[in-house]
Structures are given as C-alpha cells and as structure tokens.
Amino acid sequence: MSEISLPSVIALSPVEQPPDTTVRLPGSKSITNRALLCAALAEGESTLSGVLFADDTRAMLGAAAALGAQVTADEAAATVTVRGSDPREASRPVSVYANQSGTTARFVLPALALRTARGVLDGDAQLRARPFGPLVEALRSLGARVEEPAEAGRLPLAVTGPVHGGRVPLPGHLSSQFLSGLLMAGPLMRDGLAVELTSPLVSVPYVTMTAAVMAAFGVQADGLGVAPGRYRATEYAIEPDASAASYFLAAAAITGGRITVAGLGTGSLQGDVRFADVLERMGARVSRSAAGITVTGGGQLRGVDVDMADISDTAQTLAAVAVHADGPTRVRGIGFIREKETDRLAAVVTELRRAGIDAEEHDDGFTIRPGRPAPTRFDTYGDHRMAMSLSLLSLRSPGIEIDNPRCVAKTYPGFFADLSRVTARA
Ligand SMILES: O=C(O)C1=C[C@@H](OP(=O)(O)O)[C@@H](O)[C@H](O)C1
Ligand SMILES: C=C(OP(=O)(O)O)C(=O)O
Questions:
Q1: What are the pLDDT digits (tens) for 372-410?
Q2: 29-237, superfamily in CATH?
Q3: CA-to-CA distance for 126 and 129, rounded, in angstroms?
Q4: What residues bind 3-phosphoshikimate, as annotated (predicted)?
Q5: Looking at the domain covering 3-27+240-422, what would its CATH class be?
Q6: Using a 6 Å cutoff on CB, does residue 316 contact ligand 1?
Q7: pLDDT score for 102
Q8: Nearest-CA residue for atom 11 of ligand 1
C-alpha cells in the first residue's frame, strides 16, 4: 500500500450544519485501468486525462510497462501518455505485481497470455485470497499454459501463450472482471473471441463499460465477443469515479444537505451512477444533467428493498444510509461480494452490530434496521469501501473512529481530506 499521511486510527466528528457544495472527484478506477490496458495494447501513443492515481491504477501502470508499453505519468496533471506495443512480439519473461487490484490482475492475465514468453502474476495476501479459477480454465481452453504454483485458482499464476482464441465457456456469477479481461485481450487473439456464459453475469454494467472503452480505442466488441483487430491510440478523457461519488451523494441524503458531483453526467459509462436512483427511492431529491448529479436530502429517508447485483460496490454505502432511514432496508443479489477485498456481507453486518445497529446477513445480501450508532471504533478489514462507508456514520453520530484508514489508498487516497472539506463548517 502506498504511504499516505493518515494516522493508524482516524476520529471523525458529526457535521455542524448540512453541506451545500460541489465536489470534484478523482478519475474512475475502472475506466482508468481499462484505458491504460487498451492504450498499452494499441499502435501509437495515447494520452489519457482525468487519470486516477491510487494503488489500483499504479498496479496497472506497472503492468502496462511490463507488457512493453512506454508509460509517462504526470500525477499533478492527472495525465498519462502511453506508447503501446504488440505483446505478441515480446520474447522476454515478465512479472506483474497487482497488489490488491482485482481489475489489474483479471485484466492483465489474458493480456499476458497473448505472449509466447512466460508471464508471472502475483498480488498481496488479500488478492491471493480472491478467485481466479474461471480465468485459468478459460485461458487453458483458449490455448495457454497456466501454472498454479500455490493453490488451484489462486495467485500467484504463471501463464505462457499465445492463446489462439475462439469459443470459450465462462461462468459469470463470481465476477464480471474475467469477461472484461478476456474481451480486452480478444482482438489480439488469432481467432478473436466468443464467450459463452455458463452462469448469470454479475456486475453487468462493467462489461458495457469495457466495450465502450474498447470502442474508444477503435475496437468494436458486442459484450460477449470480438473479432481480431488492433487498438488505435487515442486521446481519452476519464470521468470521475462513480463509486467514490456514492459516499458524497449518501452524505447529502444522510445530513439533509445538498451535494453536486461534477463531471458525472447523464452520459456516464459507470453503472454506479445508479446509486443515485436508490437514494431517490429512499426519498432524497436527485437531479441529473450532462454536467453532474446533485442529491438533496431533507425529509425522512425511507427503507428500500433493492437488488444491487449491477452496482455492488455501493452496497456498503447504502448500508450506512439505511441506518438513517425510517424502516428496514433489504439488499439482494450480491452474494458474490463475499469474494471481494473481504467478505463484505459479513464485514458490514459485523461492524454495524458492533455499533448497536440491528443488521442481519443473508446468503445474497443483508437487512439493516434503522438506529442510532453508538460511539464505535470500526474495523475496516483492509477494505477501502468499509472505511469510506463506515465514515458516513460519523455525519450524525459522535464517537465514530475508523481503524486502519490508510486502506483507502487502494482507490481514493484523498478520501478523508475530501470528506472533511465537504463536511466542514461553511
Ligand atoms: O470491472 C471493473 O472495473 C469492476 C468490476 C466489479 O467487480 P466484479 O465484476 O468482480 O463484481 C467491481 O466490483 C470492481 O470494483 C470493478
Ligand atoms: C472490488 C473492488 O475492486 P477490485 O475488484 O478491482 O479489486 C472495489 O473497488 O470495490
């Protein structure tokens, strides 16, 4: 994890008055990591702007270089230039360290499998505990040799290609990242790629996003398949991160304030903008324009019953909002988030109960009943989204502390600074 200057425990105070402000958030992690990979595989030099600089995207910057791209980053300007290369021409073995980044690892493994030289992929203990089996099986059936020196279906993995492509069965119920990773490598496979899902796909909007970023780099994919071709270098502007936006939109709903997230417009590529729809169902006012999303809180929030299989990175955010509603909130469709940075269903329920909130875990989600959180030091389980979501409980309740807040470096190193700016007295 990168060194960000945060204490080992952070104490948060309630807002003194509801915020009324506009926030400008860092770039989307998901789009940054797709654009970096497409640029690394493209002919020519791409310039990316609005780039997120965080642990997950630094992992992809390293991976792009390992794949043979020349990468120049300007963090202050949030830009990266990438001179791509053809991985099929590479002859030297490489290794990629994905740290904690699921997207980096699942997107890069198929790209490594395009190469005839051996590529080793590893990550930290958290990523080593997450599943890779479906991707291993898919790459084998496409013609790669995959070694699993530790445990079957877990990092570290070593892959030697080239994959020839063609038809491949793939389960969809664990993660969409396997499909996105295969699709992005697909055009460089001799026969292209046609994926046949063997179980229902979760996180569907992320696959739509994959096809949209690929299209920006000149390759048309239909969501399950792609023909042989090459990416073309381009200038690409990355939107602000919609999952990060959920914390601020939720803060407006919880405090009865008004917060606009600039740059996340109606044309957003990110499914997580739909978190605002859930807040609307709970009674917050939402206005959307080409320039951004505004949430205005005020009245009493209502509990909701909602399937979050498309937007599961915002489920923990919703749990924090649900504490402030007038009736129970039931979240469904997200059993697969037990395999993320931590078992997110168990973690969110355990921590809310620690604060005296009535929370119940189900196979596919959770139920949260409203209550007043007691002063609590929350455990984050090394999960950035636990840290950011549980912070929201401090907005209206005193005595909230977050243990190991530095885990936010995975996707949003400036989170606590931004939160305190938004909630500070005007
Ligand atoms: O493709 C992506 O950029 C992502 C897909 C989602 O993962 P799953 O498909 O594993 O649910 C999401 O949780 C993750 O933060 C980013
Ligand atoms: C699940 C997440 O990340 P990833 O799968 O990319 O590690 C996340 O950012 O919440």
A1: 999 999 999 999 999 999 999 999 999 999 999 999 999
A2: Enolpyruvate transferase domain (3.65.10.10)
A3: 5
A4: 29-30, 34, 175-177, 203, 313, 340
A5: alpha beta
A6: no
A7: 98
A8: 175
